[in-house]
Amino acid sequence: MILNWIKIFIYHLKQNKLFSFLNVLGLSIGIAGVIFAILYWNNENSYDQWNPEKENVYQVLNKIGATGDIWASSSIPFAKTCKATIPEIESICYIDSWYYDDVIKSDGQKWIGKKILVADGDFFESFPFPIIKGAKKDILKEKNSAAISEDEAKKIFKNEDPIGKTITNDDKSYIIKAVYKVIKPSSIEPNYVFGGLLKENDEGSWGNFNYGLFVKLKKGADAASVLKKMQNVNFVNRTLKDAKGSGQTVEEYIKENGETEVILDQLKLGRLHGTKSTAGSSYPEGKGNLQLLYIMVGLSILILALSLVNYINLATASAIKRAKEVGVRKIVGANKSQIVSQFILETAIIVVLAILFALAIVELSLPFYNEFLDKNLTMNGTEFYLQIIIIFVIVIVLAGIFPAVYIANFETLKVLKGNFSRSKSGIWIRNSMLIFQFTIAAFFIIGALIVYSQVNYMMNKDLGFSGDQVLKISFNHKNREKRLEKYFTTKQELLKIEGVQNVSTFAGSFGNGTNSSSGFTHKGVFVQPRNVDMDFGFLEMMKIKIVQGRDLSPKYASDTVSNWLINETCAKMLNLKNPINTIISSGWGNEKGNMKFKIVGVVKDFHITGLQNKVPPMIFISIKTLKWNNFNNVFVKVNPKDLATTIPKLEAYWKKNINADFPFSYEFVDKSFAKTYSEQVKQKNLFFVLNIVVIVIAIFGLFALASFSMERRLKEIAIRKTLGAETDALLKELSKQYVGFCLLGFVIGIFPAYILLNKWLENFAFRIDVPVLPFIVALFVLLFLTLVIVLAKAYQVTKIDILKYLKYE
User: Confidence class of residue 808 from pLDDT cuts 50, 70 and 90?
Assistant: First the structure.
């Protein structure tokens, strides 16, 4: 029997090639979208799942009460006090929150080490990567200890045993204590882990939030209880002591300065659901984009639903051609269950073909998808194949049952007489499906246009600075203690190179912000500004304007001692209407206490981080003022006409005079800043691609239902033509209901589009208002497509042979 059903299916497949192709293609597109979303979902949710301590390890963040800034960093005494006084804490782990790449040397060889992490404490207690060789415990106990990954050990030492060998980085020697295997994906995937992170001058400083911190709790410990105890450690040792030191009550101090709030993020959930740091990602491997993940999953489900509706419409439209077959089968004894089973089997075969086609689409598109997400996703694993089976079952149930039951309920005598009319409820269901398709299409078109408008706004907004033809060059000078002296020498030499117009630096980068922040209180107002220690002429080179006062200048000796600038935001937060010459006591201390600075200028607000964030309060100070400096780049403005010859000269100078071991690395400032909205550009491109997919599927559905409806009305059309109806009148009569469906679907689609896209725009501190134009464009696009498809089909049926449909009446 089943073999006979398959033969019948193949026969109808050949007889209806177009409908069969549209069935398979529509479903395969929807299934491919779900597969893409599944691959992304599986990857994002698999981070750190290998870690047996994932439920016991927590990242510690601190929320500065007066400003609301969240920092994924802590101080040494805070962590050590918590470890000593809170019995539930089993171990603590300090890390540098970012990797770095640098030259590694060993036995006369040198290479660029990638993903170098500096850590201290029990790093391998919190991240227990399998130890292949060497010490199993206390690996980073000594400051000159190091551990390297298995892959790096094979690459560098070949078949030699690396344990006990010495490697050198930044003029420091490290002894390899262990070789470990990196398990991916993980929030931390270092190739090298060096000890010696903690600095002696930070040991007693509660205010120096310089270290990433993870705490490992004992099994069964209550995280909420531990959090309260850690908060109390902060209160007793910082808030209480600082309040007494300032001569205030605790209440007065907290009202003026706020109170630091400790946050614990469980490693198991941290990547996707953890608290986002003000400074950006709090993990070296970056933080997951939960919003993009939800967008991908939500849109893929919508597209699959659209594909299923399209399939059902196509299946019911083609059912007319098989109505007599069903009637004959019923007469010869077939019951409804057999007919339902037959058509579900046919759906199963189509779904299998669609899944195979979908897998082919995914396989061919995967390189572009990986580039889009910056991932390395592959279609393998037991979990993935199980999910494919689940998709198979769900699609058959949702797509197969309604058409099968619909066909099985044909009334035998009516269909054998050629009367295929169905109940009003059946017509209502099909029309509702068409309206649903219009609603989804309207949502996607509106969404694509609004996302495009926001991205276009971000790309064209005045940023308050000009990075055009300014190179950011990595300043990897070997001797960090003499970095400032070397910078000034380098600056003088670079200015001699033809094509170099200006040279300057500051501690930070456009797009990522600055490297430090220090809070202070002025007349009862607390602010936590970003510190910009910079060279003279930096603001002028970047075309950043001064709105009050003057810029820092080498003409004034006090500009390297006690003068600084603030930005407009900082002035507003401090309630300074006339800030020039205002004296402020800073948070930077020396042996005589806090340093006092005079404001000599106000800088116009500019965007140092992405447009997702508000412009932070900022202070600007000369790099000569402080004993320490944090700049890592030199900024060089070049003449665009001499660019081709200038860059090779810069590279030659760098290799000879800065660091011959490290590759010359540069980036244009404007392109560097563009990375801050790269995620939004991705979402714009995603909407564009899915928009095309949705429109194509919607056209399939509209074509199917138009075909179904008009084929049911062939006798009516023949009679109208016999009575003298003009083609124009027939076209109007046949198409008006679809225009109505289009308008109704559009109106329904407006509401979710407005609500969800307005919610998406809330992620941006600088954003557009939801414009009217995308809604108007979407309406005209939908109407145009509807009329083109429906009128084309209607014109086709108006050219029918009248006698063919009336000769038996």
Answer: very low
The pair of three-digit structure tokens given for residue 624, joined into one six-digit string: 């000569």
CB atoms < 10 A from the CB of 610, how many?
A: 23
Inside any domain, residue 52: no
Report residue 511: phi and psi, to 5°: 115, -35
Asked if 267 and 214 touch (Cβ cutoff 8 Å), the reply is yes
Structure tokens at 111: 């290479």
Structural domain span for residue 245:
57-273
Lowest mean pLDDT segment, chosen from 20-29, 67-76, 331-340, 612-621: 331-340
Q: What is the pTM of this model?
A: 0.80
- Report the C-alpha gap between 131 and 162 in whole angstroms: 13
* Overall domain count for the chain: 3
| Whether 517 and 572 share a structural domain | yes
Distance set, CA 202 to CA 73, 197, 251 (Å): 13, 11, 28
Last residue within a domain, chosen from 224, 247, 273: 273
- 22 exposed, middle or buried (CB, 10 Å; 0-12, 13-18, 19+)? buried
| 260 lies in some domain | yes
pLDDT tens profile 524-557:
788 888 888 999 999 999 999 999 999 999 998 8
Residue 421 has pLDDT above 60, yes or no: no
Phi, psi of 218 (to 5 degrees): -70, 150
The DSSP bridge pattern shows strands 563-567 and 618-622 to be antiparallel
Residues 126 and 253 in one domain: yes
pLDDT tens track for 772-787: 999 999 999 888 888 8
- Rounded to whole angstroms, the Cα distance separating 803 from 793 reads 20
Contact 174, 194 (CB under 8 A): yes
In this predicted model, what pLDDT tens digit does every residue of 726-746 receive, in sequence order? 666 766 776 788 888 889 999
Residue 536 neighbours by CB under 8 Å, 6+ apart: 504, 551, 552, 553, 554, 559, 622
Q: How many whole angstroms separate alpha carbon 119 and alpha carbon 116?
A: 10
